[in-house]
Amino acid sequence: MATAEATKAGTTATEEVKMVRYEALFLVEPTAAAKEWDKTLQECHRILTRHGAKILGAFKWGDRKLAYPVRRHKRGAYLITYLDGPSGFAEKVARDVAISEVILRLLLTRYDGEPKTTAPALEPELRIGDRGGFGGRGGGFGGGRPRRDDR
After folding, report:
1. Any idea where the domains of the chain sit in the sequence?
2. Average pLDDT for residues 26-51, to the nearest whole number?
3. pTM of the predicted model, to two decimals?
4. In Å, how far are 41, 112, 150 from 13, measured between CA atoms?
5. For the residues of 22-75, what is the DSSP string, one character each?
């Protein structure tokens, strides 16, 4: 039966699909990630495995404030997944992610190397006063520069 379906699709049953290593960075809705992390993880993996991917490893990277709202969310949780998938499956995965209510965004890139087993360290979030920038003493432009008296 499998050979008949493969022949209809234009391939033979012995033909092997070329697998490519990917790194997927999911931006997930923060409330769903906080309350039901296991269901969120299963949803992400379901989308990937539905299109022929083999999951090599996954871990939660953390919750962060977003630079701009994404689907009206100001915060998001990040999930990094390493996988082997058939070449050209990225478009199919992107379609499924677009209709998902849990996954806000996906960055899927080719990955050369071994999958990481621990999450990379996150930089601490900056607060308004921590940015340095324009002076620091009272704000505005040039707040920390000496005054020019030669004008």
Report:
1. 19-111
2. 93
3. 0.68
4. 32, 28, 84
5. EEEEEEE-HHHHHH-HHHHHHHHHHHHHHTT-EEEEEEEEEEEEEEEEETTEEE
Q: Which two tokens stand for residue 129?
A: 């006063």
Fold entry, domain 19-111: Alpha-Beta Plaits (3.30.70)
Could you give the angle at the alpha carbon of 23 between the alpha carbons of 22 and 26, nearest 5°? 130
Phi-psi region of 140 (alpha: psi -120 to 50; beta: other; left: phi over 0): left
State pLDDT tens for residues 57-96: 998 988 989 999 999 999 999 999 999 999 888 899 999 9
